[in-house]
Amino acid sequence: IALLNVWGVGDSLPKSQDRLFNPQALIPPRPTISTVQWVTGTQYITPADMDLLISGPDRPPSKRMLAQHAAEAEQTRRAGRAGANKQAAAAAGAAGDSSEEGYWAYMQRQVQERTEKLGLVGDNMENLEQNSASWAEEASKFVGKQKRGLATGLIKAKFGL
């Protein structure tokens, strides 16, 4: 009786209709990278490329992407309003003052913008420094743990434990 359960009674199983691969699906092209780029790490893949590779072109946008698009649309709408207000003020003031900024005002604005950008770069460098320091600390902890494991393994092997 046990052999009948293991080997069956000679009936063939019906062919499964399940498919693991859809031959009609479009496969996106593989990203190409040279060996030098791979070794040096200079080739980056964007999140959009990664989304396309993982989920294909028919993936619906995520909630985060929808929220980001809504925020960008709101910001564009506000900028459009502010631009319309500036144009109206410039048209009203065109009779008396010139609407163009002077040379020194332009230079002052450029220095201010560059100072802000340098501040952002400085903040990013500080974050990078903290991240690399924490990574180096974690790497040294890992190496120490591996050394301890190797030493205890050698001692156990030597004494037959």
TrEMBL record:
Lethal giant larvae (Lgl)-like C-terminal domain boundaries: 2-63
InterPro entries in UniProt: Lgl_C_dom
Pfam families for the chain: Lgl_C
Name of protein: Lethal giant larvae (Lgl)-like C-terminal domain-containing protein
Annotated segments matching region Disordered: 57-99
Extent of Low complexity compositional bias: 81-96
Organism from which the protein derives: Friedmanniomyces simplex
